[in-house]
């Protein structure tokens, strides 16, 4: 029985010795080994053999990169404003022995150093610079922390400002300022848009007025040219009408004269006509008394002696003059159908057609011609509206079928 108890005690002792002799270190951790209270080595990842009751594991350190967020720190800026800044530090332990023996608590040390450095950096900046200089603050914090924690076996890989919270009153002021800035920009943009719209509207009205003026100008030119052509054509017609009327009167006089000569009237017929007309001359309502001159008979006698020949009986007899062939031909009947021909003269018809072509010509005012219409006066090229309208000179209009009317 005693032997069994001794064997059981020996087995327990062997198990305790084995447990004390083997240390299992997980991957990503490092263990600091002490022998009789003195640092001997640092081990990581795997099984480590120890001298029982002489070696021991002082501490295990996580060698992975760690991200630590520190609570907000009150920092006073250069313009005496207190802001709360949250920082996030990313670091890794390179030397586990230094992290254990170099500092009591490296997390607290990093926090205190980052707070002091942050106050030093932000204290030389205004609030606006602090809000807009995150990258500068991050670089300075990382540099200061890396230099201070190197002897602790730490490597600072990144420092970030998570939040910068100004006082509530300052936040309200900043919000008001931002709102005022936005309203200012909106007002400026609205004014710019209104200005552009007014400019475009003015340009459009200007172009419209220019086009309207150009159209009125060309319309007045065409109207004036049409009036001119109409006056010319009316003058041509009046002249032709007067000319034809004069020709007709001359022709009628010649016809009457030729008819009288061809008829070979005698003084007896003239005397009969005279006596026949006397009662009609006396029928006027204003004729009260009709006086025949006493020398009237003497005048007739002298006329008869001058125009007649005395025959064998002593009586003066009128002998009409001989009638030539031209007079007979003129006194004869002729075709008068051509006198009433109403066809227009070819020259007048051509003038009317040309005037209609000019009046019916489309008026085009393209916008691109506006830039060329501002050329110096006297050097501007003629546009399609400035084409000269063919002028029609006043030409005498001959009769349709003219005949040589010559008086005898």
TrEMBL record:
Q: Which residues form a coiled coil?
A: none
List the membrane topology term(s): Single-pass membrane protein
Q: Which SUPFAM superfamilies match?
A: Band 7/SPFH domain
Q: Which is a Gene Ontology cellular component entry for this protein?
A: side of membrane
- Residue ranges, annotated region (Disordered): 363-408
* Source organism (scientific name): Corynebacterium kalinowskii
Ranges annotated as biased composition (Polar residues)? 373-382
Q: Could you tell me which InterPro entries the record lists for this protein?
A: Band7/mec-2_domain (IPR050710), Band_7 (IPR001107), Band_7/SPFH_dom_sf (IPR036013), Band_7/stomatin-like_CS (IPR018080), Stomatin_HflK_fam (IPR001972)
Q: Which PROSITE patterns match?
A: BAND_7 (PS01270)
Q: What is this protein called?
A: Modulator of FtsH protease HflK
Name where it's found. Answer: Membrane
